[in-house]
Amino acid sequence: xxxxxxxxxxxxxxxxxxxxxxxxxxxxxxMPAEIFGENYDFLKKDQLLSDDELVRLGELFAQLGVTxxxxxxxxPLIRRNLDQIIRRWMAIPGIEDVAMxxxxxxxxxxxxxxxxxxxxxxxxxxxxxxxxxxxxxxxxRSSATRVLEAxxxxxxxxxxxxxxxxxxxxxxxxxxxxxxxxxFKGTGVIVRYIEYMDVGNINGWKLDDVVxxxxxxxIINAEMPLVEVPPNxxxxxxxxxxxxxxxxxxxxxxSVTRPFCGDCxxxxxxxxxxxxxxxxxxxxxxxxxxxxxxSTDADVLxxxxxxxxxxxxxxxxxxxxxxxLPTKGAxxxxxxx
Length: 337
What we know:
Layout: E1 14-18, H1 51-63, E2 68-72, H2 82-90, E3 97-102, H3 107-117, E4 121-125, H4 131-138, H5 144-156, E5 162-168, H6 177-184, E6 190-195, H7 213-223, E7 226-229, E8 239-243, E9 249-253, E10 266-269, E11 274-276, E12 285-286, H8 288-292, H9 297-309, H10 315-318, H11 332-335
Helix pairs in contact: 2-3, 3-5
């Protein structure tokens, strides 16, 4: 196996694979309803990577050092036969961990199949327990109750390492972060609060809308004292805080105010086969075309290697909490956040 390193010596370890660009939610920070209406032109079936292409790329990235796969979307559970694809990814030599991020809407009936497929971990997006607030955050597409029922089913079938992702936007759900923390305190479920990020170009991001990690910590700490703890591994995206009474922990993903580019080992693959080396990347390498034009594995490996070896991405470090950089590239729903 070849261990690739970029211009800053960072290896390629984590591959985030978007298996579907469509989503049934219309979260304003990702897929605002006024843009993504009923007639929005999502990818057609033949434009999506096929099951075999997804598996082949998983195999090729594993040969270059990737050990973790995270399945994303859009909403990944819209993809048919996803459990069968996961089984095939699990069989790839070198792949040690396969996880998925989902909005939870379709999770309940799929939980057992996902567990049986070998999926290691689940992350469920839940921006508030308050149904009115949650509705604002998801475009009036789901209740918090439905997501919580899906989480309970996932626990019932045996998923143990479950996390909650909560994007915090000032003036919308910032006042409910303590309720979310309190609900999951002592349950083993880790809530990760995410600073509202400037991904893509359509969500109208403004720095004024960001509730910073420090503010979130202060709000929760005032109710339930917290103690900062070291990361589980180098390059972990979330800053970890344990409850002082030992009843669990929360995480803060703070790419706006606490950039973590220096240890970034992540790459992203869109549902159309576009290879991005940064969440904020402007350019992508088309891998779908060589997969379909008869290129050999060696050819595709060389394409990926050439891009990674020249990688020098550090968008979040360049964009400090006081600076807005020019237009970015892909929207979040295309590359899974």
